[in-house]
Amino acid sequence: MIVARSHLSRRSLLTAGGAAAVALGAAGASPSAAAAPADNPVDTPAEALRRLQAGNQRFTSGHGRHPHQGLTDLHRLAAGQHPFAITVGCADSRVAPEVLFDQGLGDLFDNRVAGNIVDDLLLGSVEFAVEEFGSLLIVVLGHERCGAITATIDAIHTGGTAPGHIGTIVDALRPIVEPVLDQPGDPVENGVRANIAAQVRALSARSTIIAEKVHEGALHVVGARYDLDNGRVSLVA
Predict the structure, then answer these.
(1) CB contact at 8 A, 214 and 137
(2) Less Cβ around it within 10 Å: N or C end of the chain?
């Protein structure tokens, strides 16, 4: 059952965090950090994807605009946010969506966990953004040389177990990675691509909220792979 929007209070869930962010920003912001004008609104999933692709092209060419990342922008967003896209990415420190896509505060609703795994908590977070903010695009963002995939392959090959709660990550990835280990090519790369595809499928298969929006054409879900060597993000079928 879909929770009524009146029961999802954006102010109660998010305002406290926004106020704290303003306080932290004020402590370290430079007076010269002028805010760039906000981009034109994004109205369709296709426009959302094009904006991310254009931003990644700016990033890889060294012409990033670093849009609306100033203190004035933070003040503007303190009253509410309207991210046009949702990312489901890896927690890897080299895979920061706002940087890779040259976006600013309020543009992306980031969900990051090692292995970009769609578990129940992450799925609830994504559903919240879809319902509350009307975000138009979900990008499952994997990346080459993923440590979570590598750890899973090592555990499969050695028959060992990962220490602590890392084992939970390995257990979630094992049924996705194991079937592609015998395929030609690099096993980690094969695992990364298989995992991106699996998490894209999981979003719609496990969420009525997401599936309905996709069916209506109001939301697209895509998979993408980030290349650590050149910074490019490419779509994965």
Answers:
(1) no
(2) N
Distance CA 178, CA 195 (A): 11
Identity of residue 166: I
> Which tokens sit at 155?
């555990």
Structure tokens at 53: 């692709």
Tokens standing for residue 208: 């009525």
What is the Cα–Cα distance from 69 to 36, expressed in whole angstroms?
8
Tokens standing for residue 60: 């890889």
Interval 44-57: pLDDT, tens = 999 999 999 999 99
Q: How many CA atoms lie within 13 A of 125 on its CB side?
A: 19
Give residue-wise pLDDT tens across range 109-121.
Answer: 999 999 999 999 9
CA distances from 35 to 27, 38, 186, 202 (A): 17, 8, 44, 38
The rounded Cα 195 to chain-centroid distance in angstroms is 14
Secondary structure class of 209 (helix, strand, coil): helix
Q: In 135-145, which positions are buried (b, 16+ CB within 10 angstroms) versus exposed (e)?
A: bbbbbbbbbee
DSSP 30: -
Which amino acid, residue 58? Answer: R
Taken in order 93, 99, 101, 105, the sign of the CA dihedral is positive
